[in-house]
Design goal:
Elements: H1 7-17, H2 34-50, E1 55-58, E2 68-72, E3 77-83, E4 88-90, E5 98-104, E6 107-112, H3 113-123, H4 130-133, E7 136-138, H5 144-150
Parallel strand pairs: 3-5
Antiparallel strand pairs: 1-2, 2-3, 4-7, 5-6
């Protein structure tokens, strides 16, 4: 016999009665710890990529710079994806065939790292910055111009 108020009691009740979503509260992203935010963002991004036929596999060790693999079985394509909380380029990612995924406002963007780097080099002065010369450039607030440049890479 299970006791009400215990986890086993909860699971038993759910199995018998089904889940009533008003039993749960939605999480506030700002209240999550950094690792929890990373997992949350992965789940959101994986859901977006599923709409394009990708199966996403989270990696535990940043294998060759990738946070996860996005596999599209109908064409046999596997993308090695580095997930960021904002647009970012890094010198140690150059030439590694990595894809960058990041949110801007309510959309996710997916672009090859080196293509993104070249786009920034062509249309901005970011690659002349001390930050890039140290190996990394992060864009915490994307300008309207940058968002326009990234439109072809936006997931819908």
């Amino acid at each position: 016999m299970t006791k009400p108020g215990t986890f086993v009691g909860f699971v038993t009740a759910v199995m018998k009665e089904g889940i009533v979503m008003d039993q749960f509260e939605r999480v506030d992203y700002k209240d999550l710890k950094p690792k929890q935010q990373e997992v949350y963002n992965f789940q959101k991004l994986a859901s977006e990529l599923a709409d394009y036929g990708f199966n996403c596999i989270k990696l535990s060790d940043d294998w060759n710079g990738a946070d996860f693999l996005a596999y599209k079985s109908d064409v046999g394509l596997t993308l090695r994806v580095q997930q960021k909380s904002c647009p970012t380029i890094q010198q140690n990612y150059v030439g590694k065939n990595l894809w960058m995924a990041f949110p801007i406002k309510k959309y996710w963007y997916l672009i090859k790292h080196d293509e993104f780097r070249n786009l920034l080099d062509e249309h901005t002065v970011f690659l002349n910055s001390p930050s890039w010369k140290k190996g990394k450039y992060t864009i915490p607030r994307a300008s309207a111009e940058l968002i326009e440049l990234l439109t072809p890479y936006r997931l819908h």
